[in-house]
Write a structure and sequence with these properties.
The protein has 159 residues and is mainly alpha-helical. It has 5 helices and 3 strands.
Amino acid sequence: MLVSAANRISLSYRPRWRTDGGGWATVGKPRESTPSISTVSPQELGEMLARWNDSALEARYGDAPGPAFAWNPADDIAPLDPVTALKALDCLEYQCAEFEGWDDCEAYRFAQALRRSLISRLPGYDDAEWGVVRWGYAAAKEDARAKIEARKLAQEAAR
């Protein structure tokens, strides 16, 4: 599912991460404007994630490796909403965090890049303000007063 999520995201949202070799990578077709980014096939990406998942399950539970990852292009046809993909990503990270070295490996860097890409696709994300302009108690108090005033004006106008 995570491979499909990364592969199906439009090019403008496609995750990009640092490889263990120090370069940049993306899954599937890269943007033509960034030829310095290497591409990883969905099969290669799935194998990398499966290796880390297997290592984590072995370290935590003594489990034997699961079946080999096999990419199926038909998996990309089904729509996948960002929230479902984020939940699956949380599951992978929860399991892999048990394994020494998870927070300093390429699979972790991919997971963080995918998370950023998925969050930016959530409904309302593009409409939200960039950065925090107002915050804290004073701003909340001011906003509450403005709402009370707006309600009073609406009530007076309704009379």
